[in-house]
Structures are given as structure tokens and as C-alpha cells.
Amino acid sequence: MARKVSTRRKAIMTAIAWVIAFLIFFPILWTIILSFKSEGDAIKSPLQVLTSHWSFESYFVVQERSDYFRHFWNSVVISLGSTLIALVIAIPAAWAMAFVPGKRTKDVLMWMLSTKMMPAVGVLVPIYLMFRDWGLLDTRIGLVAVLCLMNLPIVIWMLYTYFKEIPNDILEAARMDGATLSSEILYVLTPMAVPGIASTLLLNVILAWNEAFWTLNLTAAKAAPLTAFIAAYSSPEGLFYAKLSAASTLAIAPILILGWFSQKQLVRGLTFGAVK
Amino acid sequence: MGQITLKGVRKAFGDVEVIPPLDLHINEGEFVVFVGPSGCGKSTLLRLIAGLEDVSGGEIEIDGQPSTDLPPARRGLAMVFQSYALYPHMSVKKNIAFPLKMAKADQATIDRKVENAARILNLTDYLDRRPGQLSGGQRQRVAIGRAIVREPAAFLFDEPLSNLDAALRVNMRLEISELHQKLKTTMIYVTHDQVEAMTMADKIVVLQAGRIEQVGSPLELYRSPRNRFVAGFIGSPKMNFIGGEEAAKHGADTIGIRPEHIAISTSEGAWKGTVGVSEHLGSDTFLHVETDHGVINVRGDGEVSLHAGDAVFLTPDLNQLHKFDAEGLAI
């Protein structure tokens, strides 16, 4: 028998869910509100902030002082580039682990995941020195490489989970039909895993877009993405709340819109394999 | 085209030997059925022939060519899977054309062969559909179509009808038999269903625990099973086995008699018993009779009107009696 839920209980649960959702969303909402205020109004009490004058002033100032579109373009190149390269490496790797597992496959997977448990700062100095010697500091190629490597374990893990769901029979049928390894991956496995690959791509674009540690430490001006653009407005002195908020809003807007339109795909991707 | 020879082929997974060394010869154009209970190694044997599993020892020859180390695609065989294994993202047409595309056939050849296969299998109206939009029987036909276009040396069927409902299974069984008559290509068919084996095969290979128990035509296996296992496995309902004194009277450790070779009477006979469950199928009646020798299954005609509790006498047809020694081998 299905569990009965009274209307009152349902209403209370819904209200709690809305409150929690609002609390999570509040910092973003407040940032957006502040971005439409003058610096003077932005530091007033919350009630005064809401009733004060609204303007686009901060946005104009921000665009004037630091070129938004250049940072935006850097973010696009870095997040998409690192994710696409990671996918090209991860698809065959995940194929091998899902369909021709060896005795140590599980260990390899765990080992890859374990690299994500290490704090990034632990390898900052060696990576920084290597980047300096190889002339990769403040270059988009350098950031693409480092973010690709950082996210590779997650990409492989996600794809591995999707590939595990694909029946082996179908790949064997392709083999019987004369498909070589590359045609098997290209014509059969990849098209079947498109939903999984798409959600992996989305999630990793988001992770790479929001990545701040490496982007802040390895860039200065040329290759700086939107994370650096925001950071430029955080200052211990002076009134920068409104401009910082405007910069933040500009930086998160693209990914927020992308996430909004692809939320179905993302949720499916994150819960894939949990229930059959 | 289509001769397959296995010489001392064996397969082990780690320390577990699932197929001890085995020899088998399949003639050109033959319809061979591997039959046996679940886990007897029949699917593994098929996969070894297909090249989807590597042999642990022995040799496989296809049309006289050593093929043990050839990859599946180069053995010239086509396989139909139990799960159909269709490519869900491709239309029926693309599914059937896939092997030709892999063989880099030109578009005109692809179109001609796909149309031909679709006509043979009554799929012409469904060519633009996706597998998800087809019924089980249609999907199985697409899988067969994909196999046909390759014009293989032999078709391998791995329990292809297991996922279909009973009525469709009977239809598809007939269709596959007709296809064999039409194409005259070697077919190897794996099933656990002895009715499928009996009705379709030119030659049945009965397997148990990876060993071949007997190879022969359906009637050979039915009439002269080599041992108790084959006797019990082939035929439906199963053969009755009786041991003890009754068997000793016939100079055997165990005697076997098929349900259709026992006469039933209410007045006289060799063995006295009481009717337990009776199953009326219309054309036949299966009676489970409790006797001093245990429960004996008897096949009567559809008109038998006996009910639970009725006293009856059973008389085996002594010409049809099977005798087995202590090892279970036929005497």
C-alpha cells in the first residue's frame, strides 16, 4: 500500500523545501540586487538597500574598467577546451574499463578518484614551477591542460558509469558485424551514450567555469577568465560591493542560464545508474 | 561453405573448466542445435565458435581454414543474440545495413541487400522505424536480417526465442526453419528448450557440464538415447525411470519408458496405481499415476476421462523399454 500523506503534511513539507531553496539561492539573489545599486546604497541596511534607487551604473563601470568580453571568451575557451579534451581521453579509457576490465580496474578507478581527494594547493608549487619553465603561465593552453587533468578523473568516472549501463551484447553484435574497435566506439558506443556524454560535458563545463584556484594562481591578465574578473573587484579597502556584485552577476549569468536550460539533462546525468 | 570443425576445444575461466576438451564436426548446410540445461556450456561453446570468447585450448576450423585466432568479424559468421542486440539509435534499415557499411559496400549494394532481406523477413514497412517502436518478434526479425545481409558461412543463434511469448515463439520457430530451407546455410542454434531442438534440428548436440552427451538426429536421440541423461532430457513429458526389482527383472539397473509408450486400463495391466493429477490438453491427457514404483507419467489421448483417485493399471510397451546400467549408460 502506498504511504498516505495528508494535505497539511504536504503543505508543511513544501513550505520547508521552499525556505531551504530560498536560503540556498539567497546569496545569489542578494548579489544580483546589489549589482543594481550605487556603492553608497549597497552598504546600507537590507531594508534601505531594497528601497533605494536602482541603476545599471555598476555594470557600465565594470565593463569600462575591465574588459568583460575578453574574460568571458577566456572562460569559454578554458572550460569547453578542457572538457572536450578530457572527453577525447576519457571515452576510450572508460570503454576499456567498462568492457574489458582487468583484475585491477577497480583499483585504477579508485586511484584516479583518490587524486581528487588531495588538496590542489599540495601540487601548486611544482605545477607553478613547471608552468613557469615551459612558458605556460597566463596562457589559455596552460589552463586548458591543467583543468583538463584536474577534471579527468570525474569525467572518466561518469562515463564509466554510463558505459556500464550499455549491454555488452550490442557491442559484441557490432564486433560480429565486422566493426573495428574504432568503428565500435564511434558508431555504436558513443551514439548510445550521448545522453551520458552530454551530461558529463555539461557538468564539467560548469566545474571548469567556476574553477578559481588554478585560474587565479596561474593567470595574470592575458588568459584570465571570469573568476579572475570577479576577484579583481574584491578589495580589503574602498567601496566595491556594487561593482563586485555586478562583476559576479556577469560572471555567473552564462553558466546559470546554461544550467537552467540543461537542468533536466544534468539531473538525469547525476542520478544515472542509481535506479534502473 | 559452412563446415565447422572443433578439435579438442576447451574453455576455462580461471581455474574452472567449463568445457573439457571437445570434438565436433558440423557439415555444410546443417541445422545443428546445442541443447542442454542452464549452465551446461552451450552458449559458451557458441561464443567460442563466434570468436567472442578465446579458447583455452584446441582448434576451430571454419571451411577448412584454421580460425582459432581470427577475430569475430573475420570468421564469416553471423550471430543472432537472445537480447536481439539491435542498435537502438539506428533505424531498422541502418541496423540491417550496418554489417555492409562496416564491410565498405557501395550504396547500391547496400540498398539492394537490405531490401532483399526486408522482403524475406516481411520488414519492408518498418525500415524507417527504430527498434524501440517494434514488437519482440519484429525485433528478432531485424536481428536475423542483420545476419542475412552478411551472407555468412553459418548463422549462430543464441537462444533467440527466449524473450518471446509462447505463440510468437512457435511462429518464429517455423520462420527460422523456413529460412534455413530457403538459404540452405549452416545454422547453429542454442536452446534449453528440447521442443525447439526436436522440431528444428537436423542434428542435435546434447550437452551437460560442458561435455557432449550425444550427437544425433532428433529421432535417433528419441529412439536410442545413449545414456539416462539424454533419455530424460529429450522428449516431453519426460521419460519415466524405474529402478529396483522391476529393473532387475529386465536385467538392468534402471529401466526407462516414455509416457506415450504406456497403455492405461481400468481393468488389467502390469502395474497397479492410482491417478493423481490429470492434465487435459485437449489433444492429449497427461496423467500422473502413483504406483509402487513411484509416480509414473502417462500420455493418454484427449478422450481419457480418468480423475484423481481412480484405480488404474499400466502396461509398458516392452519394445520401447530403455535399459540402463549402473553408470546410466544404455544397455
Automatic annotation (TrEMBL), chain A:
Start and end residues of each ABC transmembrane type-1 domain: 72-262
Keyword line: Cell membrane, Membrane, Transmembrane, Transmembrane helix, Transport
Main subcellular location: membrane
Transmembrane segments: 12-36, 72-96, 108-129, 141-163, 184-207, 240-261
InterPro entries membership: BP-dep_ABC_trans_perm (IPR050901), MetI-like (IPR000515), MetI-like_sf (IPR035906)
Compartments, as annotated in UniProt: Cell membrane
Keyword Lyase: no
GO cellular component, one term: plasma membrane
Coiled-coil ranges per UniProt: none
Membrane topology: Multi-pass membrane protein
GO BP term (any one): transmembrane transport
SUPFAM superfamilies: MetI-like (SSF161098)
UniProt-listed Pfam families: BPD_transp_1
Family: Belongs to the binding-protein-dependent transport system permease family.
Name used for this protein in its record: Sorbitol/mannitol transport inner membrane protein
Organism: Thioclava atlantica
UniProtKB/TrEMBL annotation, chain B:
Record's keyword terms, sorted: ATP-binding, Nucleotide-binding, Transport
InterPro entries: AAA+_ATPase (IPR003593), ABC_transporter-like_ATP-bd (IPR003439), ABC_transporter-like_CS (IPR017871), ABC_transpr_MalK-like (IPR015855), ABC_transpr_MalK/UgpC-like (IPR047641), Mo/tungstate-bd_C_term_dom (IPR008995), NA-bd_OB-fold (IPR012340), P-loop_NTPase (IPR027417)
Molecular function GO terms recorded: ABC-type maltose transporter activity; ATP binding; ATP hydrolysis activity
GO CC aspect terms: ATP-binding cassette (ABC) transporter complex, substrate-binding subunit-containing; maltose transport complex
Pfam families with a match to the protein in the record: ABC_tran (PF00005), TOBE_2 (PF08402)
All copies of domain ABC transporter, residue ranges: 4-234
Entry superkingdom: Bacteria
Family named by the database record: Belongs to the ABC transporter superfamily.
PANTHER family cross-referenced by the UniProt entry: MALTODEXTRIN IMPORT ATP-BINDING PROTEIN MSMX, MALTOSE_MALTODEXTRIN IMPORT ATP-BINDING PROTEIN MALK
Protein name according to UniProt: Polyols ABC transporter ATP-binding protein
